[in-house]
Structure formats: structure tokens, C-alpha cells
Amino acid sequence: CAYFAISHFGRQADCSTVLAEIRTQIENATSITWKSTVFVDAMDKDGKTLWVETITSRYAFRAPGLYRRDAIP
């Protein structure tokens, strides 16, 4: 987030300043959405085949205090 904010706002700032600005914007937002992806290593019983499974969820918040989570298949 901090890297995006620094590059987006186009000015030099330290990370604590940028994160404080982002936190203020999030706390004052009437709504916000975000997506989370978790990567899980899975292995067969024989221990020879390894693959990665992904679990993706979409979240939404709307003031005052309404949250929603959708699992994306």
C-alpha cells in the first residue's frame, strides 16, 4: 500500500506518513472493497506430488459497520 500511495501521489514521503494518510482515508470512507488471495501448498499422501491451491475472498465494508465476505471459486 505504501509503495502504491507514494508512486500514486507523486511526492517523496516516509512510509509512516503515507500509512497515516491511508489509514485516515480508510477510516473516513463510507465504503471500501478489497480482495484477499491465500496460497496453500498441498501434497499427495505419497508425498511426491506438490501443488498450490488458492483461496480467494472478496470483502466489502459499508458504514456504519456492515461487512460482507464472498468466497470466489
Low-confidence stretches: none
Order of helices and strands: HHEEE
How many strands? 3
SS field, number of helical segments: 2
- The percent range for helix content is 25-40%
Q: What would the average pLDDT be, to the nearest integer?
A: 80
How much strand?
over 45%
Structural class: alpha+beta
Q: Summarize this, please?
A:
This protein has 73 residues and is α+β, with helices and mostly antiparallel strands. It has helices at 2-9, 15-28, and strands spanning 31-43, 50-62, 66-72.
Which key features would you list for this structure?
73 residues, alpha+beta, 2 helices, elongated
Overall description:
This protein has 73 residues and is of the alpha+beta class. The protein has 2 helices and 3 strands, in the order H-H-E-E-E. It has helices spanning 2-9, 15-28; strands spanning 31-43, 50-62, 66-72. Strands 1-2-3 form a 3-stranded antiparallel sheet, with no helix packed on it. A hairpin with a 3-residue loop joins strand 2 and strand 3. The longest helix has 14 residues, at 15-28. The relative contact order is 0.16. The mean pLDDT is 80.
